[in-house]
Design a protein that fits this description.
Elements (H helix, E strand, L loop, with lengths): L2 H18 L39 E3 L5 E3 L2 E2 L27 H5 L1
Antiparallel strand pairs: 1-2, 2-3
Length: about 110
């Protein structure tokens, strides 16, 4: 298949994901779509007007003190708005501490 046809096929697969909802886990995301933008190109519509709304509210702000606000209102359970640590990332409790990172994990 030529590149234009392949791109159209990928666009159709992404459209289906946008309609049905994104996978819960990154591992379940189709490999061929990992380079596509969920919701289409930037500028086609606002975040709150397209399929991106399935990814969560757009006005979530994580504060330095650990609190979280949504649309300016502080939430009762900030943990609800935190994802799992990225394996091997700085917040992963199982990742080794790298030189110069000692204080980052300690709080």
């Amino acid at each position: 298949a030529d590149p234009a046809e392949k791109n159209r096929e990928l666009d159709e697969k992404m459209k289906k994901l946008e309609e049905e909802g994104p996978p819960e886990r990154l591992e379940d995301w189709p490999d061929e779509l990992k380079t596509k933008t969920f919701g289409g190109r930037e500028g086609d519509h606002g975040y709150n007007e397209g399929p991106e709304t399935q990814l969560g509210p757009s006005e979530v702000v994580h504060r330095e003190d650990g609190s979280v606000t949504v649309a300016g209102e502080q939430v009762d359970d900030p943990e609800k708005y935190k994802g799992d640590p990225i394996p091997g990332g700085p917040t992963d409790p199982n990742s080794p501490t790298l030189s110069g990172e000692g204080d980052a994990k300690d709080g």
